[in-house]
């Protein structure tokens, strides 16, 4: 028994010295090439790319907010201009004059007996020559008590359907507040070739007092608001007087528009 214990002790001693663990391992074995070494071997450029992407993500919200503020400022500016312009135009329209036709009649209406027909037409579809003088009495009234009106020269054209009855012109003038100005106009056509059928229709409507004529005036208008002067605004005046209305002294009104198309 004594010999067996001695043999066991000898075997433990001859097993050889135990190697100490590597430094920093805490007594545990770590394989070659730890995570720390692999991370340190990554190229430095990955760090710079990450930093640039994070910086751009931080600045993008600020750029978007700045752009939205700029857009809103521009939108509000143009909206204010639109509102101010609409108010100004409405104010001008409220100060437009009232134009009426007091008299419209033919002082002369002659039709030549000579009919120029084509070889394939009859006398009822031929041409005749018209000579006519038209007398018109127009009233311009400045209804507002705020501004004076300054009229430029106005061209006047008179017609009935396709038949032209001449043209004339109204010279420039100025109108005070709450004031009326009357113009006596005369237009003339001489030996104008017209369709016989159209002329017969005009004569019939004149007899029945159903003829509707057309007066077109084109010129410019200005407003004097104290020290503020607005001049040279393109203006159109369109009148469609009916013979019966004029004979009954109804004084048909004309349409006055700024900036005609």
Automatic annotation (TrEMBL):
Organism listed in the record: Ziziphus jujuba
Annotated TM spans: 74-96
GO cellular component: plasma membrane
Bias (Low complexity) ranges: 1-17
Stated name of the protein: Uncharacterized protein LOC107411583
Residues of the signal peptide: none
Keyword Transmembrane attached: yes
Record gene name: LOC107411583
Region (Disordered): 1-33
InterPro entries: NDR1-like
Coiled-coil spans in chain: 189-216
Record's keyword terms, sorted: Coiled coil, Membrane, Transmembrane, Transmembrane helix
GO biological process annotation, one example: defense response to other organism
The keyword Membrane is annotated on this UniProt entry: yes
Subcellular location field: Membrane
